[in-house]
Amino acid sequence: MAQLQAISSCSSTKLLCHGSNRDAARIYNKVHCPRKTEELGVKASEFHGHAIVQNRANFGLACNNHVIQAVLASDKEAMASSGADGKVLRKKLNKVVLAYSGGLDTSVIVPWLRENYGCEVVCFTADVGQGVQELDGLEKKATASGACQLVVKDLKEEFVRDFIFPCLRAGAIYERKYLLGTSMARPVIAKAMVDVAKEVGADAVSHGCTGKGNDQVRFELTFFALNPELNVVAPWREWDITGREDAIEYALKHNVPVPVTKKSIYSRDRNLWHLSHEGDILEDPANEPKEDMYMMSVDPKDAPNEPEYVKIGIIEGLPVSINGKELSPASLLSELNEIGGKHGIGRIDMVENRLVGMKSRGVYETPGGTILFNAVRELESLTLDRETMQIKDVLALKYAELVYAGRWFDPLRESMDAFMKEITKTTSGSVTLKLYKGSVSVTGRESPNSLYRQDISSFESGEIYNQADAAGFIRLYGLPMRVRAMLEKGL
Question: Most CB within 10 Å of its CB: which of 76, 128, 210, 339?
Fold first, then answer.
């Protein structure tokens, strides 16, 4: 069940606590609120499960007496208004939900939004399996940056069940290699942001994506599809900050604590499906990745010297068990990541075509996903006929393109998904795979719906297939080629 945490605070304020002193101690201070904050409360969202609000005490917040004078206008008009420091605002917004990671970029976006849009900022963090180390201390970081509220939602099960598994069933792979790790995560995060915006009464959403990448498109197309009335703010397309040094300078100027964690030389994105690496030496496609870059998988040469066999149970095109043990979608994928990573499975190095037109080089680790793709595809060799399999493969290419381009909620993808769901109804059974030093090989497959018949396929004579019938078939099947040859020879 999805969990929702909300943490709200306000600085330079007079806290009027109506709860116990013990409850009041849980309220974080040091957030500058531009206006009186309403009583904190979040409804249960439309996600599977209930929202849980971390609100220990009823309290009133009397904030600084800064009044923002705004001129109401239409969505398309620029609004002239002044913020707390007298700065002319780009546009007056009430409350913005920001996709927040706690890193330098999103930390400086918080005061930038308040300074340039005169708004309250609600930071939102989605747990899609990036690891607890990336979620630690987010409350303090958000409040120290000036956010009035932090919302954290556990989306791991929804991510795997409703986004990863449909792509797996469809056989969606982008440009022959990429298993769409980041592409699938962005719409589930953006969908949650739209829900949170409704819950907290926000009139805008914001993200920290650059103007050169694919993610800006993925976020914003989801916003458009689910709530076209929301304003979208993309600071990287608006502000004067051009790099890390500018961001640090802005943070210090606005008393935002600069993250003390060591800056990675790589740009990484991690979730339960994969870990991507970009930047530094990888920007030259001729350079071999350094071994110390990898985090989810061991070097295949250092993997166990004995192979490991894994049996994946599948029902209607979706995995349900490992070695006979039924698991939830997120638990199943997590366990396969451990198994696959131990054997160096799932490393991919590729140059891909970004949606915005440029080529980029990325290295991906997808241990559990690689195992699952091999298993599902192999079971289809038993359960799908030739024509169906060929059409499915053709559509899988388009399906992958739509997901990569951020068109998850496009009617075309949804319609294609209905097709994939229908034709894989018979794809049930199990596949046994051997994992050994970076390789995945199939050793067995079985299905109650198998189209394979040993009595037909056997080289021994059978009643159903008469080998003498092949002569007539070949003559008819090869007739066009025979006629063309006769024409060329004047026969």
Answer: 128
- Longest alpha-carbon distance in the chain: 103
Tell me the C-alpha to C-alpha distance, in Å, between residue 182 and each of 187, 272, 331, 337.
9, 10, 19, 16
Catalytic residue numbers read: 105, 186, 215, 267
Q: Is the pLDDT of residue 155 over 90?
A: yes
- The residue assigned the tokens 């319609």 is 415
Distance (Å, whole) CA 40 – CA 220: 27
| Residues 266, 276: Cα–Cα separation, whole Å | 9
Beta bridge partners of 278: 267
| Sheet strands (E) in 336-428 | 347-353, 359-365
Q: Which domains does the chain have, with CATH numbers?
A: 4-253 (3.40.50.620), 267-384+424-446 (3.90.1260.10), 454-488 (no CATH)
323: helix, strand or coil: coil
State the Cα–Cα distance between residues 430 and 376, nearest whole angstrom.
9
With beta carbons less than 8 A apart as the criterion, state whether 36 and 62 touch. yes
| Residue partners of 46: CB distance under 8 A and separation at least 6 | 195
**Cα→Cα distances 134→53, 125, 158, 270, Å:** 21, 10, 19, 10
- The residue type found at 238 is E
Of the ranges 126-140, 260-274, 429-443, which one carries the lowest mean pLDDT score? 260-274
Q: Could you tell me if 204 and 234 are in contact, meaning their C-beta atoms sit under 8 angstroms apart?
A: no
Q: Up-side HSE of residue 109: CA atoms within 13 Å toward CB? A: 27
Question: Residue 327 CB: number of other CB atoms within 10 A?
Answer: 16
Mean pLDDT, the chain, as a whole number? 85
